[in-house]
Amino acid sequence: MSATRYLEIADQLAAELDGCTRGTRVASEADIARRFGVGRAAARAAVQELERRFVVRRTQGSGTFVNRRIDYVISRSAPPSWSTTIAAAGATPRALVKSVRRTGLPADLVDRFERPSGSPVHEVVREFYIDDLLASWVHEWIPVDEVPDLDLALHAVESVDMVLRQMGRVRPVRAWCRVSIDVPPAEVLGALRMESSQPAWLVESVSRDEVTGTVLMCSRTWTRADAVRVVVELDEQPVAPERKGRKGDASVE
Predict the structure, then answer these.
(1) Contact 74, 66 (CB under 8 A)
(2) Are 54 and 226 in contact (CB under 8 A)?
(3) Which of 243, 248, 227 is nearest to 68 (CA)?
(4) pLDDT (tens digit per residue) in 52-82
(5) What pTM was computed for the model?
(6) pLDDT per residue over 114-129, tens digit each?
(7) Half-sphere exposure (CA, 13 Å, Cβ side) for 203?
(8) At what angle do helices 29-36 and 5-17 cross, to 10 degrees?
(9) What is d(CA 48, CA 59) in angstroms, rounded to the nearest whole number?
(10) Cβ(48)–Cβ(56) under 8 Å?
(11) How far is Cα 199 from Cα 224, in angstroms, rounded to an integer?
(12) For residue 197, what are the CA distances in angstroms to 39, 59, 184, 189, 200?
């Protein structure tokens, strides 16, 4: 058997899966081996190649499914809303609240929140789904004084951004963001049903009120790399015209 036979199998399967909807179950390695008359090792290599191309995604305990990765666009002009961003990409978002509790502001968020350590905040843990496929594990911190009844509100409205706008009477905008890719900690790997060697996107973000500048939320979001491609767009900012210096000035401010 050719050493590249698994690539030929992967190419054929990729062409066949191209017309399938996201979430369609893919044939097992045993079925692929029987169909193409190869060993399990070649069938496994073909599936791994499809996974490398993001054509399929494997979920521990569930199986292998057709994948359609979407662009998650982060920009100054877009609202800092996961649901809005996913919907804008043409997919269906869904959020599942795992827990909401009142706690003290963690010490490592003091600088970003501009509040003393221990200040009362809501700590929210949620799962995000794209077209009913698990995509993200999210920790969010929101000051209690912004939305005292956040736990009740999230039973009715999935979007924290919407809750802040409707109940907090504020206009959230993304003020700071850092994007990296790494292997998540064990807790997140388990929550996202990923294998220990799989990397994921980590998006850390701070949202402020557009009017007052008050920090409204800090978040840390781990997202499966096979679910989205994170795209950061730096919107062009208007440049103030240069002021002419006085005659004899060595520089122009």
Answers:
(1) no
(2) yes
(3) 227
(4) 999 998 887 788 999 889 999 998 888 899 9
(5) 0.82
(6) 899 999 999 999 999 9
(7) 25
(8) 110
(9) 13
(10) no
(11) 8
(12) 24, 13, 9, 9, 10
